[in-house]
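Appendix C reproduces, verbatim, an entry submitted by the partner laboratory led by Prof. M.T., so that reviewers can inspect both the input and the predicted structure.
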Amino acid sequence: MPRSRSLPTPAPGSNSGIGRLLPGLATAALAVASAILLHGLFPSLPAMTLAVVLGVLAANLPGTGAWSAGRARPGLDFAGKHLMRAGIVLLGLKVSIMDVLGLGWLALVLITGVVAASFGGTYLISRLFRLPPVTSLLVATGFSICGASAIGAVAAVRRIRHPDTVLPVALVTLCGTLAIGVLPLLVHPLGLTAAVFGAWAGASVHDVGQVVATAQTAGTAALAIAVVVKLTRVLLLAPVAALAGAQHRRSARPDTAGAKLPPVVPLFVLGFVAMVVLRSTGWLGDGWLEAGAVLQDIALGAALFGLGSAVRIRHLLHTGGRAVLAALAAWLLIAVLGLAAARLIAG
C-alpha cells in the first residue's frame, strides 16, 4: 500500500496565534521600558510622548523599519488596538468624581463648554483644510478631550480602521509636545498666576502626561489644579464615546444577513466608567492606585508605540502638510478658549 503523506507539524512560535504577536509585543515592551527610563532621566518629557517618538523612529530608521513593518507588525497592531482599550479602562482609576465636583459648578460648565467648542471648532478647521471626515473626527476628539486615548476610544466605537488613527495620533503628539515648550514661556508676558496657568494647561493641553509636564514648570499649585481640570475633560470621554457609538449604530447597516450592529457603548467604555466609580468610592488604597497607574502606562505606552511605528515620515510629508496646518490652527483655537476659561476658573 502506498504510504499516506503526512502534513507537516507547525513549529512552536509559527505564524499562527500567539507566535505571530510575540515579536511585536516584545518590541513594544522594550520600547515602553526605554520610554519610562528616558522619562526618569528627563522628567519634562512625558513617557507617552516618548513612546510615540520611539515608534516613529522604529518605523523610519534603516535598521528597524523592515522589522516594524514585517515580523513585528502583527504584534504592534495588536498593541495599538487592544492594549489601547486596556489603557483607556485603567485611565478611569485616575479620575475621582469628588475631585471633579470640588471645582464647582461654574468650572464644570466652563470646562464642558471648552471641550464642546474645541471639538466643534477643530472639526470645522479640519474640514476647511479638506481633511477626510474620519480624520477630522479623530483629530477633534483627541485635541478636545485626552489625546491618543480619546482617538483610540472613538476609533473603536466607530469601527475606524487602525491605519486611519495614525495621522491623528501623530498630530496630537506634535501639538501636545509644542504646548510643553510654548505655554510656560507665556506665563510672564500674560501675567498669569500659578493657579491660572495650571487651569490653562489642564483646559487646553491634550494628553494627561503632557499636562503634567507643562504645569509642573509653574510649581505644585499649578500642577494640582491642572490635573483636576484635565481629568474633568477625561471624564467627558465616556459620554462622547457613547454618543459616537449611538450615532454609528443608527447609521450602520450590517453587510451580511445575521451580522451584528456595533454596540451602543462598548465594554471598554463601560470598564472606564466602572474604574471611575471604583476610584471615587475611596476603597482602593494608594498601592492599588499606583499599580493601576503603572499598568496603564505600560498598556498605553505599548499602544502608542504600536501606532507610532506605523508612521512613515516620507508618506506623512507628502500627505500631511494640510493636516499639520489644520492641527496648528486648532491648537491655537483651543489655547485661546482654554485661557479664557482658566481666567474665570482660577482668576
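The chain has a mean pLDDT of 85. Additional entries are available on request from the coordinating office.
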